[in-house]
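Fold Annotation — chain and its backbone

Encoding — discrete vocabulary of local shapes
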Amino acid sequence: MRRKWAARYEQGMKALLFDMDGTAVDTEPQHLKALRSLLRDYGADPDIAHFHEKVAGRTSYSVAQSFFPDATPEDWRAFSVAKERRFRDIADGLTPAPGLVRLLDAAARSGLRTALVTNSPVENVDFVLGRAGLEGRFDTVVLAGDLPRPKPDPLAYLTALQRLDIAAEDALAFEDSLPGITSATGAGVRVVGLTTSLSGAALLQAGACRIMADFTGFSLANAA
């Protein structure tokens, strides 16, 4: 498997596709803090394991649905807006994942296209990329809010491939959550799993073909 991937890369890997939260930038601790703070107002308080297994990688709207299944769509939307606003209020010290900037620089020099593929709302994307100094570092940004179906549906990654005019077999995705891996593999894209939120075993079981802690040891030369 490793040699086949290496051979295919040498024949022409053309694009790198990145999730944002927990992948390009480790925002997960701030998201957990914001969610727990808001849920306490509702009398609930998820533990870390619940967050990583049931919340990470999903839209705030779907999170609201899971916690409050009997509420109305208006309630779910209001909760989603409040949660993301609270995240932006408390998040600080946001920096690119270790090794990411070096990888983006190498991709640019090599002519590889890049995309950010995220379930986060546009307000969060602008906020996180701005605070982390990553504005303009991706050739395209695919927002779940612009699509009829967010991750784990494959549509987000299919849209990225379409915008970049790249075939799935010529792309490599980086994800840290089960919805993200499901979305990418559903679009036919190989996925490297980052152990920001889940164990390596869980990422591999979900469909990642390789795992790593961050981008420090990853290079285009050893992409296999």
User: Anything to note?
Assistant: The longest helix spans residues 73-90. Residues 161 and 167 are 6 Å apart (CA to CA). The chain is about 50% helix and 10% strand. The chain has a mean pLDDT of 88.
